[in-house]
Write a structure and sequence with these properties.
Blueprint lengths: L2 H15 L1 H29 L3 H4 L1 H8 L4 H40 L5 H35 L9 H35 L1
Helix pairs in contact: 1-2, 2-5, 2-6, 4-5, 5-6, 6-7
Length: 192
Amino acid sequence: GSVAGSLFPMLVTGQLGGVVAGGSFGALSEVGGAMQEAEQIIDLLDEQGVLYEESEVYRRIVDAGGTHEEALAEAKRAARAAVPAYVGPIALVGDSVLNLLFRPMNLVAGKGLFRQIGTRLAVGAAEEGVQETLVGVASRHSINVGAGLSLDILEDSFPNFFWGAIGGGAVAAIGVGRGLGAQARAHDALLD
């Protein structure tokens, strides 16, 4: 998944419509991105001249007398059709589940301000990094199932984790900044 593609719409929608709207829009964005990736992978295999060898769906249609265009369209359709079943659940509930798993880290961080800030940044980065990795693996698996491919489902896992962690850390940093600002305003109000 694309960090900007999934995080930005979710943040904007979340601000406008709340957490449920933001999460739902983020999940739809992830599914849409995975469907687009499915088509791009099929096109890439076609351009490389290996789609017949790689895709059971494509091969079955060509062997039955179908044209290249028919087989290509069906391989893309089948790959896209499999995406929601595999990517959708991870994209929809993944953030909530990961939040529950990582939440205890926030509690054991200690009382120091810098420890709490560091922990919140680390948790935000870890949550989004793992989420993007899981979505990437599910996306590749769904393309394999749909188009009858045998892609390495772990390919791009490190970049997915890295960019997810960057995005998650950035969002956590914004949250920390807002929290510190609110704390400073509350402190100033008490002094006035």
